[in-house]
Write a structure and sequence with these properties.
By secondary structure, the chain is of the alpha/beta class. It contains seven helices and seven strands, in the order H-E-H-E-H-E-E-E-H-H-E-H-E-H. The structure holds zinc ion (2 copies).
């Protein structure tokens, strides 16, 4: 809540929320997948109460469908919710979308490239039309090779996504970007992947960013 409020108010350029448990499977009257409270939606409600933002565009790159978030924002036209998961869906007003992640075993491109291409096609153009006050990247790394939502991705995909989200936020909402940690179970991946993502947000050159070995 504090991070979203301070980014929305312009006190922080962006923020990475190192949440120890997930949030996107927590809905109105259900929860699961270690998500008890929907962190993003609670923060959004609070930020709106203080009047510092209204419209939020969310990209969910966790491997799984953000069913709780979708449930809570389903009737909210001021939330764009683009979820890269297993399905294909577009709401009538075009603000709620599911996009099927590339099947890493059925593509010619590298899984990283295919995923980044998909994210680039799915999110920035819709966010540009939506005109958000702030962008949220729900960052799951369970899509990494060998984690429980394995989509064949390596660390390069997450750094590429970080760059894409920074670029999109810079173009659309003065750089206001909140990154919220979602799924991912391997501490070896977390310790290797997350610091360079945070460094990207802070504009710091991370010495090992191109030589991460997290397979
Ligand atoms: Zn997940
Ligand atoms: Zn979804």
């Amino acid at each position: 809540m504090e991070a979203m409020g301070r980014v929305a108010a312009g006190e922080l350029a962006n923020a990475f929320c190192f949440i120890g448990a997930g949030g996107h499977h927590a809905g109105r009257d259900f929860f699961g997948g270690y998500c008890c409270f929907n962190d993003v939606v609670i923060a959004l409600r609070q930020a709106r109460r203080t009047g510092c933002l209204r419209r939020v565009a969310i990209l969910d790159t966790d491997a799984h469908h953000g069913d709780g978030t979708r449930d809570l924002v389903a009737d909210d036209p001021d939330v764009l919710h683009v979820c890269i998961c297993g399905g294909e869906y577009t709401s009538r007003d075009g603000t709620k979308l599911d996009v099927a992640a590339p099947d890493p075993w059925a593509i010619d491109l590298s899984p990283d490239q295919a995923y980044l291409d998909l994210a680039r096609a799915a999110f920035p153009p819709r966010a540009a039309r939506f005109r958000p006050d702030l962008i949220v990247w729900y960052f799951g790394f369970d899509t990494h090779q060998g984690d429980y939502g394995d989509l064949g991705l390596t660390s390069a995909a997450f750094l590429g996504l970080a760059d894409l989200m920074l670029e999109t936020a810079a173009q659309l909402c003065g750089g206001k970007l909140l990154v919220v940690l979602g799924g991912g179970s391997r501490t070896d991946l977390a310790t290797t992947l997350i610091p360079p993502v945070i460094a990207r947000l802070a504009g710091i050159v991370w010495p090992d960013a191109n030589s991460l070995d997290t397979r």
